[in-house]
Structures are given as C-alpha cells and as structure tokens.
C-alpha cells in the first residue's frame, strides 16, 4: 500500500472481481490515438495476411462480409485506466481468416491505415480470442473508434486492438509495434498490469 | 527508460500550489530520484485512501528539465474523483506518489529543427508549455507558434509564463470559445477551419504539429488540420478524455 493521501477518500468502494488492477469503470467510450483519425471508405478497404512464404491472402469488404459473422460480448480494458463491461460487437473471427494461412512463425505485426502498428503473438489471435470487428453496439463502427474495421483482442490492453486495421504480417520474433516502441509493454496483459516498459 | 525508472512509484512532496484559473491550479513537486523528463511526457499520480483504496490518473508535465523538480497543472472536473482533490485539497508539504516519465511519442526534442505548431485546448496547454519552455531553454531557432483555445480570458493556464515566452519567433493566437475580452475583434467561437487556415504554420512549411486537450477538441482540430493539407503523420495528438 502506498502512502496515505491526507483527506482523500475516493469514490468507488466495491471490489469488482471483473475489474483488472488499477482500472476504473466507465460508461463512456474514450479515445486513445496517436494522431488524426483516418477515414477509409469500405470501397477501398482491403485486409491482408502475409506470411514468410511470400503468400498474401486478401479480402475486400464484400468478401469479409460473406464470411461467418460472430456476435461478441466482452469487457474491454484501456491502458489509460478505463474499463468498460459487456460491450457488444460483431465481427469475423481470426480463426476463420487464418484457416488457409500456412505459417511457421509465432508472432504477428498488425498494420493499420494511417501507419499504426502493434505486435501480438499468434497464439493470442487464435482460439476464439480475436476478431476483425466492424459493428459496435448494433451500429457500424465509427471512425474515432477504428471504423470501418478494427482488430478486437479484448484479453489484452485495448491499444492492441488496432483501429483502422488493414493487415497482419507474420513475424519470426516479437518485434515491438508503435506504442511498444514508445513506452508501452510488449505484451500488455491487464490482469498483470503490464502497462509500460 | 527502463523498468526501474518508470515501473516504481516514487514519493514526491508538494512544494507549491498556485491558482491558475477559477477551476484549475498548478502544482510543484519535488521527487527525489526523478532525474528529469522530455518535453511533452506525462506521469501517473496515485492517491491512497486510509482504507487502502487507490486511484490513479495521468497528468502531463509542464516542466522539462533534468531536475527532480516537477510542475503539473490540473483542471477540476465537477464530478471527478481525483482532479477535485488535486485542485482543492492538496497543500504544500503533502506527499503524492508518482510514476514516470511516460510516453515517448508526444515529445519534442531540442535537436528537432523543423517549425513547430502547438495547439492546445483548456488544460491541454500543459505539455505544450513544457515544449515551449524546452524550446526557449535550448536556444533553438526553430520557428514556433501556439494556438490556445480557452472558454474565457479567466481560463488561461500559465498566463504570465506565456506572455514571457511570446516573441517574434513564438507567436501566440488566442481563441475564446465562450467569452472574449471586451475589446476583442471577433466573437467567441470554437476553433474553425478559417481560424486554423489564418493562424497555423502552413502545411507547405512542413511543421510538426502537437494537438492536446479534451478528446472532442483534439478530434475536431486534427480533422481540420488534415483537411488543410497537413499530413496525418506530422500531427501528434494527446487526448485527455471526456467528450
Ligand atoms: C496522457 C494524459 C495526460 C493528461 N494530462 C492532464 C493534465 O495535464 N491536466 C489535467 O487537468 N488533466 C489531464 N488529463 C486528464 C486526467 O488524467 C483525468 O482524466 C482528469 O483529471 C479527470 O480525472 P478525475 O478522477 O477527476 O475524473 P473521473 O472521476 O475520472 O471522471 C469523471 C468523468 O469525467 C469524464 N472525463 C475524464 N476526463 C475528462 C476530461 N479531460 N474532460 C472532460 N471529461 C472528462 C470521465 O469520462 C467521467 O465521466 C490527462 C489525461 C491523459 C490520458
């Protein structure tokens, strides 16, 4: 326990087992990005997965929409300390997108329109843990929140859920992405409070 | 940065508090072992209640030097948990836990020679003051401009300091959104396309642009800058939260 702050009593008292350490609940949906919000038309949108074998799999918006779409209800946790419970999304599972992808590499670099990158181990994208999401709360995902589509990997801090996602590149090693080069943890587990270097 | 310098909480002692606006104040803190920070970085502040309950929030650092002495400035949110305590209750001599410095993106380094445009809304001026101070202290000749949007003339943080920093190579444009000074030539209003077109370093001069403030302010200004031809990659943003 830290030093007592004279005269501070704080607000929320109940211990909530669903809230990772150091997080507080919000009903808003705050925004964290490094720059202006890119606006991408679904007509020009494209999503790719590229491997060490030189193979690139790609999907247009229409092709993505033709894949099995899942409803996702999940809690999300931002490194800036807000958490939001029971958010609802629709998207395509990465298990579906990776079905025909042949790779022996264990790490991924996620790329976004606008140049943002983030790294995630492949195992964290597989097994029903990650999606390309394009609907939030029953509506098309707004550009501020990463629309038309963002990665959704809710078991990691939310900066890993790259907004404006456009592709995944297989990597041999766990190379740092954008925030990971700028002070944030390489993995980002909210339950272990892996916020910073 | 290493896990050692960032990952551990350090105890700071408040050395001075100063009222800046009707809702905000600046706070000076001595943090033994801090060792300085870059202009634009922030830290986490942790408060602990007598029953062990803790609350942590991020605050930008207004100072940018190599010392153990820090300056913050905090605006009180009416229903906030942490900011009312920092603005109304904290006194010189009180201790605060801090962790940092944090963030390696929204920073300015004295080696940078390109023109710099700073754009702040409300308390979003804090990291921009650090950048302006670092610019002045380094003797850098990179052209600087600041556009500062406030609700009313009373809501200006670091008024005297900004007046001191202003010079032919550091022009300041004021935007009043609710009430302007009596003799002001224009009506109060939000930062618009026309205001930015008239007062921001043009995209053709390839400035680095730093935009900071409440999320809604940053969203709208950053979009307008892109529409004015500033490449998204040269616009760095820091969103403080809120609508
Ligand atoms: C990197 C970073 C740097 C920051 N630097 C500063 C700084 O230098 N000075 C400063 O005063 N604040 C700064 N902030 C904001 C600060 O971290 C807190 O969010 C703010 O003080 C409110 O905390 P609170 O506990 O009083 O309110 P909370 O109890 O957390 O929130 C109360 C309500 O206000 C909303 N809210 C949160 N932040 C804002 C906001 N900025 N505007 C409007 N509504 C909001 C919340 O969503 C919530 O509904 C910074 C934030 C970040 C992420």
TrEMBL record, chain A:
Chain positions covered by the region annotation Disordered: 1-25
InterPro entries hit by this protein: OxRdtase_Mopterin-bd_dom, OxRdtase_Mopterin-bd_sf
Boundaries of every Oxidoreductase molybdopterin-binding domain copy: 35-179
UniProt cross-references to SUPFAM superfamilies, sorted A to Z: Oxidoreductase molybdopterin-binding domain
Gene3D superfamilies associated with the record: Oxidoreductase, molybdopterin-binding domain
PANTHER family: OXIDOREDUCTASE MOLYBDOPTERIN-BINDING DOMAIN-CONTAINING PROTEIN (PTHR43032:SF4), PROTEIN-METHIONINE-SULFOXIDE REDUCTASE (PTHR43032)
Protein name: DMSO/TMAO reductase YedYZ molybdopterin-dependent catalytic subunit
Species whose genome carries this gene: Conyzicola lurida
Automatic annotation (TrEMBL), chain B:
Family matches, as InterPro entries: Cbr1-like_FAD-bd_dom, FAD-bd_FR_type, Flavoprot_Pyr_Nucl_cyt_Rdtase, FNR_nucleotide-bd, MRET, OxRdtase_FAD/NAD-bd, Riboflavin_synthase-like_b-brl
Keyword Plastid: no
Domain FAD-binding FR-type residue range list: 7-108
Cofactor requirement: FAD
GO molecular-function term, one example from the UniProt record: oxidoreductase activity
Coiled coil: none
PROSITE patterns documented for this protein: FAD_FR (PS51384)
Keywords for this protein: 2Fe-2S, Iron, Iron-sulfur, Metal-binding
Protein name listed in UniProt: Ferredoxin-NADP reductase
Organism: Conyzicola lurida
